[in-house]
């Protein structure tokens, strides 16, 4: 996977923004400025960015309960996202969605989802729509390894393979389904093998390595876009933080976390980028700009108006409340 | 819209889908067996068109837009929601509403809430056609009237026609609606027929239908209980009791004004529902009458519903479980005995 310097900087910018956004949320919750059910994406940045860099704005992504990384990688505005997490009228969903329901249809983000596995058939339907309307569009479902145990997953893969749909199922296997280790509830080490039941292409990527994810995602998205059907792309990764902010992490060992932290996708990316001729000064300038941008986003969110109470009954139906 | 001819309920539905597909290339039809073996090219086979043949012929007319799905209600319903949110206008056949248990999440948590959760940016123009009701010895898992579940979920609409005329017009309105609509097809009416206008027309969602006027009591029905109410009204007329009959047609949104208007006119209301009595449309309408029509009530509100039990298989048990014209007449008489 060879990228130009501007492409490398763009990938770094997205990964670094995701990392900084999530750490900012952690800080805001710790200091009592933000509340909500927040599931952080720290550690998995290479997956969202490695996949979404091949998507067009009109391509559709269905996300999960851990959606901030997918949203940023798909091009959502962090100021509108932050305002949404603050429940403000200026949020990307007018303050009515929150973290687990972030979406922006204008950017092809069909939505985060509070129900594990529920986004998988939605992406499958978006792919059916793209195919029938002949748009050349592709749909991507981001899901965890835990969601591969749902019926929605298996029913969707069967339909997608049967109909040769332009969809990529990206499984972020981070080893943990909430507080339960994956191996306690999964009889297979690699969920990629599940594609075999559906005669579907599959591949496994090192989810801590942007370049490996990006190379395999490009191939899968190209397969979808050229009418050659769906792919199950399993990315082996790790969530550096708990299931949600406030999770005690009592259920997993520090040694395990440290093993994975040594493979931090941002640090590995930086090494590769420096070797490819990007300068450290360029990366630090990006860091500073992102940190500034997030400070501004938080200030804007905290200053933004709360929704009018009449919003409770708006958007229930097309023509207003019924 | 020109002249009317007699069509069966199923033919009226078929005609509505055909018109919707002719007038809008975004409309697709998907479900289990909606084509059937007729999708193959073997000699001497025909489309099944679903379990009751309702969609027969549509697969041949629109081969790219009529899709047989695997028996995967969760997957197909979720896919239909995703397709609806991204430019298509899917009509899904959920063979029997009893199967909603295996595909409720896409309706409850996705279709119903996407518009709201996105702050109004998403729309889900999805129609779910589904067979409801008892009377064919379908037993406990093929006979329920579970529309109370969907009618109670904000963001969904639920309609149930009682005539082939309304079946065609309500289905066209449902397909063209920008919100998810559950369209119920009552089993007890599927093989009946009635006058259906030719051409393209819509029956508005949210409007009840005054079936017949009366002065002493209002019989409020929906779907298959509407003809039961009409039969009961005929019988009551012999006793000198003039019964008004209101067909709700739209369970969500509910035509509260039409309900209150008939209540104000007669002061007595009997609600007839094929569903079980608790937490359903009948009890909901009764609560509405007590809350907003209390001053007009001359007698207690009466409910004639199925019994609070699963639908039994054996014919006499099934009939005992269901509402009937005789039960409606008895309820009216009991209500009149109240002083």
Structure, briefly:
The complex is a heterodimer of chains A (322) and B (339). Chain A has 11 helices and 8 strands.
Describe this structure in words.
The complex is a heterodimer of chains A (322) and B (339). With 322 residues, chain A is an alpha/beta fold. Chain A is built from 11 helices and 8 strands. Chain A has helices at residues 5-30, 45-52, 68-73, 78-85, 119-133, 151-162, 182-185, 210-225, 254-261, 265-275, 280-303, and strands at residues 60-62, 109-111, 139-144, 167-173, 176-177, 180-181, 201-206, 231-236. Chain A is globular. Chain B is α/β, with parallel strands linked by helices and 339 residues long. Chains A and B meet through α5 and α6 of A and α3, α4 and α5 of B.
What is the topology?
The complex is a heterodimer of chains A (322) and B (339).
Chain A: H1 5-30, H2 45-52, E1 60-62, H3 68-73, H4 78-85, E2 109-111, H5 119-133, E3 139-144, H6 151-162, E4 167-173, E5 176-177, E6 180-181, H7 182-185, E7 201-206, H8 210-225, E8 231-236, H9 254-261, H10 265-275, H11 280-303
Parallel strand pairs in A: 1-2, 1-3, 3-4, 4-8, 7-8
Antiparallel strand pairs in A: 5-6
Chain B: E1 4-8, H1 9-23, E2 27-31, H2 58-61, E3 66-68, H3 73-84, E4 89-96, H4 104-111, H5 114-117, E5 127-132, H6 147-151, E6 157-159, H7 164-176, E7 181-186, E8 193-197, E9 209-212, E10 217-221, H8 225-238, E11 243-247, E12 250-252, H9 256-266, E13 269-273, H10 281-292, E14 302-305, H11 315-321, H12 325-337
Parallel strand pairs in B: 2-3, 2-4, 4-5, 5-7, 6-7, 10-11, 10-13, 13-14
Antiparallel strand pairs in B: 1-8, 6-12, 9-11
């Amino acid at each position: 996977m060879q990228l130009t310097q501007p492409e490398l900087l763009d990938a770094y910018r997205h990964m670094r923004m995701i990392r900084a956004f999530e750490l900012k949320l952690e800080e805001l919750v710790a200091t009592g400025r933000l509340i909500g059910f927040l599931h952080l994406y720290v550690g998995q940045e290479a997956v969202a960015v490695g996949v979404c860099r091949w998507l067009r704005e009109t391509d559709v992504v269905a996300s999960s309960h851990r959606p901030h990384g997918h949203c940023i990688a798909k091009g959502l505005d962090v100021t509108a996202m932050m305002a949404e997490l603050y429940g403000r009228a200026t949020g990307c969903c007018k303050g009515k969605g929150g973290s687990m329901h972030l979406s922006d249809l204008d950017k092809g983000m069909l939505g985060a989802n509070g129900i594990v596995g529920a986004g998988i058939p939605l992406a499958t339907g978006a792919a059916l729509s793209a195919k029938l309307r002949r748009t050349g569009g592709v749909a991507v479902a981001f899901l965890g390894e835990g969601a591969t145990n749902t019926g929605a997953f298996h029913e969707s893969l069967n339909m997608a393979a049967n109909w040769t749909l332009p969809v990529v199922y990206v499984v972020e296997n981070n080893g943990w389904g909430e507080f339960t280790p994956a191996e306690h509830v999964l009889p297979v080490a690699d969920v990629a093998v599940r594609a075999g039941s559906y005669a579907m292409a599959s591949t496994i990527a090192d989810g801590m390595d942007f370049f490996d994810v990006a190379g395999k995602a490009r191939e899968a998205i190209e397969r979808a876009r050229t009418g050659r059907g769906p792919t199950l792309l399993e990315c082996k990764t790790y969530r550096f933080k708990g299931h949600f902010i406030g999770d005690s992490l009592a259920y997993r060992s520090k040694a395990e976390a440290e093993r994975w932290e040594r493979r931090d996708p941002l640090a590995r990316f930086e090494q590769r980028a420096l070797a490819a001729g990007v300068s450290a000064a360029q990366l630090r300038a990006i860091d500073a700009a992102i940190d500034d941008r997030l400070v501004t986003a938080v200030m804007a969110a905290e200053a933004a108006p709360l929704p009018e109470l009449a919003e409770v009954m708006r958007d229930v139906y097309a023509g207003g409340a019924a | 819209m020109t002249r009317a001819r007699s069509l069966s309920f199923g033919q009226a539905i078929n005609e509505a889908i055909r018109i919707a597909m002719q007038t809008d290339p975004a409309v697709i039809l998907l479900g289990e067996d909606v084509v059937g073996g007729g999708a193959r090219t073997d000699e001497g086979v025909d489309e099944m068109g679903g379990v009751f043949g309702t969609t027969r012929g549509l697969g041949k007319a629109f081969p790219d837009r009529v899709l047989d799905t695997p028996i995967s209600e969760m997957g197909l319903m979720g896919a239909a929601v995703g397709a609806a949110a991204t430019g298509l206008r899917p009509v899904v056949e959920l063979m029997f509403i009893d199967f909603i248990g295996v595909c409720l999440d896409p309706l409850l948590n996705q279709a119903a809430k996407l518009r709201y959760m996105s702050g109004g940016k998403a729309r889900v123009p999805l129609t779910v056609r589904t067979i409801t009701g008892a009377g064919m010895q379908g037993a406990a898992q093929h006979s329920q009237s579970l529309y109370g579940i969907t009618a109670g979920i904000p963001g969904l609409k639920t309609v149930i026609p009682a005539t082939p005329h309304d079946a065609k017009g309500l289905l066209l309105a449902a397909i063209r609606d920008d919100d998810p609509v559950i369209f119920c097809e009552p089993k007890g009416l599927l093989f009946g027929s009635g006058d259906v206008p030719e051409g393209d027309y819509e029956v508005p969602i949210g409007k009840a239908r005054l079936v017949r006027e009366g002065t002493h009591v209002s019989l409020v029905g929906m779907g298959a209980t509407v003809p039961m109410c009409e039969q009961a009204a005929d019988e009551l007329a012999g006793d000198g009791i003039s019964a008004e009959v209101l067909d709700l047609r739209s369970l969500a949104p509910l035509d509260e004004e039409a309900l209150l208007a008939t209540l104000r006119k007669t002061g007595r209301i009997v609600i007839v529902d094929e569903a079980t009595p608790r937490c359903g449309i009948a009890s909901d309408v009764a609560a509405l009458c007590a809350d907003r029509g209390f001053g007009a009530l001359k007698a207690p509100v009466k409910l004639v519903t199925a019994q609070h039990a699963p639908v039994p298989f054996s014919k006499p048990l099934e009939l005992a479980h269901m509402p009937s014209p005789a039960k409606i007449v008895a309820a009216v008489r009991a209500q009149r005995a109240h002083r």
